[in-house]
Write a structure and sequence with these properties.
The protein is built from 17 helices and 21 strands. By secondary structure, it is an alpha+beta fold. β14 and β15 form a beta hairpin.
């Protein structure tokens, strides 16, 4: 295999070795494909229509991904956009290869480990850091999409921007969800400190624009047309200057420079894959923690008869909770950007280590304490597209918190992803934190775009979600739901979300009260009746070759076919 190189032949390739995973199999075996059904599942009906239009016009899954993401940046700006970062897991049906495109933001070159400390050496509060210029990382979405398009796109690059640019000019109705999150942002902070955002989403007296208001964005349409002419127009020239000016404005200005933008390079990586029962699960590698942590959770569950202890039993959920707690502990301790930290990916996913961690689950009561293990080291919006040729995109993109940094340039919001770095650069024992800030470093992510292959190496399903660190739990839940509990994609999405990171288990309000009581009796501390705002989207290929999908009712997503 010769890895794709992407725009300008300057894309940095860091292919992770998968030989120790024993994976010379499923995902990489070429599949004979015939034109077949196609499907899109995404978080907003406009975005789904953008993707379907690209497919109807002769585009493929990558073309649809560009159309979807540029539309989500307009209609769902609180979650993702071209001012942020993303990961794509891509399956090429013609070659049988699966690769990952890493468009995660990078820290400006001037960033130091003390990035989030004030003049007294105290970490800044999150709400102070959130909208600061220091929070903005160099956006990677456009460069990543350009790389993927050069490698695999079918339509001309510019054609994929037509839908979003037209919608920005003609206007779209503010959805109830977008309206509610505009209100939520105003409740958390004084939005008058972000004049571009205030002028865009609030009326002349400072009230949030209502649901149903037709919102236009001529500035975003102009930016998209610039990018459509040449993707480098995002990283060089007037638009790049606008981004730098927005980042370096007060209060707490950032350090981003034009050179930081001009030198951004996406990466093309091998996925992190691991066999689970009769399937092979592939997801994003570091700096995302998703691929490792999801596969750890599933690997720890494999020795147990999960089908016999289904979603209506406390025992099934107990095992899921404990596997999640153990995997999250390892995630927090070990995973960061491999260009800066020696991440023990192979050791964390080795059979012996997974077996040792799994053995801790074999008990009747909650594990009292869940520290990270000791591996033997030798080291949020989501959508899915399947096109008629069988190519698959599972993509998760984010600007991080509500409307990113609340700072805008060119009609779009800029991310606050650098708050994903550890605020204190040192661990409790004084050693450097793996996820401490550094110039050029990618902050650790939990994005987990995932593709699953069957025992014959054929595509079976794709899943993923937004949700910060909870993404891992949301995605793992759907995998257990479908692969072990025999649920449809929609049923797996609608299972209650259960997030077990640390000693307190967050349990969604739809979780059965009697099962919650049983878990408490086992020794678990539950934060019950939670609202868990996942945004899961799934497409699964059935045995007869047809497709079925699911969209999370917790958001506004839909599933569509051309």
């Amino acid at each position: 295999m010769v890895p794709p190189t992407g725009p300008g032949a300057s894309v940095l390739i860091r292919i992770l070795s998968l030989t120790l995973f024993g994976l010379a199999t499923a995902a990489c075996s070429a599949q004979e494909t015939e034109p077949g059904p196609a499907m899109v599942a995404a978080a907003n009906p406009h975005a789904v229509e953008a993707g379907l239009e690209a497919l109807r016009d002769g585009g493929n899954a990558i073309d649809a991904a560009i159309a979807i993401q540029t539309t989500l940046s307009l209609v769902e700006p609180q979650s993702s956009g071209i001012g942020g970062g993303a990961f794509i897991v891509y399956y090429d049906a013609a070659t049988g290869e699966t690769i990952v495109y890493d468009g995660r933001e990078t820290a400006p070159a001037a960033t130091t480990p003390e990035h989030w400390l004030d003049e007294t050496g105290t970490p800044l509060p999150f709400l102070t850091a959130w909208t600061s210029g220091r929070a903005v990382g160099v956006p990677g979405v456009i460069a990543m999409l350009a790389t993927a398009h050069e490698d695999h796109g079918a339509l001309d690059w510019a054609e994929n921007f037509t839908f979003a640019a037209g919608l920005a000019e003609d206007g779209f109705e503010i959805s109830p969800r977008l309206h509610s999150l505009i209100l939520r942002t105003a409740q958390i902070r004084d939005v008058s400190a972000s004049p571009a955002m205030r002028n865009y989403l609030f009326d002349e007296v400072g009230e949030a624009l209502p649901a149903g208001h037709v919102l236009t964005n001529a500035g975003y349409a102009a930016s998209l047309r610039l990018i459509a002419e040449d993707w480098r127009n995002f990283y060089e020239g007037p638009l790049a200057q606008d981004i730098v000016e927005a980042v370096t404005a007060g209060p707490i200005p950032g350090q981003m420079t034009l050179e930081d933008l001009a030198t951004y390079t996406p990466e093309v990586l091998a996925p992190v894959c691991r066999e689970y029962r009769a399937w092979n699960i592939c997801s994003a590698p570091p700096p995302s923690s998703g691929g490792v942590t999801v596969n750890q959770i599933m690997g720890m569950l494999e020795p147990f008869d999960m089908a016999a202890s289904g979603p209506d039993t406390a025992e099934g959920w107990r095992r899921f909770i404990e596997a999640s707690r153990l995997a999250y502990a390892d995630r927090d301790a070990f995973i960061a950007d491999t260009a800066f930290v020696d991440v023990p990916v192979e050791a964390l996913l080795s059979d012996n280590y997974i077996a040792a961690r799994s053995a801790l689950i074999d008990r009747d009561t909650a594990i009292p304490s869940v520290p990270a293990g000791t591996p033997d080291v030798p080291g949020t919006s989501h959508f899915v597209v399947v096109d008629a040729d069988g190519n698959v995109v599972s993509m998760t993109a984010s600007v991080e918190f509500l409307f990113g940094s609340n700072r805008m340039a060119g009609g779009f919001f800029l991310n606050n992803q650098l708050t994903d770095f550890t605020f204190n650069p040192l661990n409790a024992d004084g050693s450097p934190a793996a996820n401490a800030p550094a110039g050029g470093k990618r902050p650790r992510s939990s994005m987990s775009p995932t593709i699953v292959f069957n025992a014959d190496g054929a595509f079976e399903l794709a899943t993923g979600s937004p949700g910060g660190t909870s993404i891992i739990a949301y995605v793992s839940k759907t995998l257990v739901g479908m692969l072990d509990w025999g649920l449809t994609p929609q049923q797996a999405i609608e299972l209650p979300n259960v997030v077990a990171r640390g000693d307190v288990v967050r349990v969604e309000e739809t979780f059965p009260a009697e099962l919650a009581d049983e878990l408490r009796a086992m020794g678990f501390t539950l934060d019950a009746n939670r609202t868990e705002n996942s945004g899961l989207h799934i497409i699964r290929r059935l045995e007869d070759g047809t497709l079925t999908g699911g969209a999370d009712p917790r958001r506004e997503g839909v599933v569509g076919e051309p």
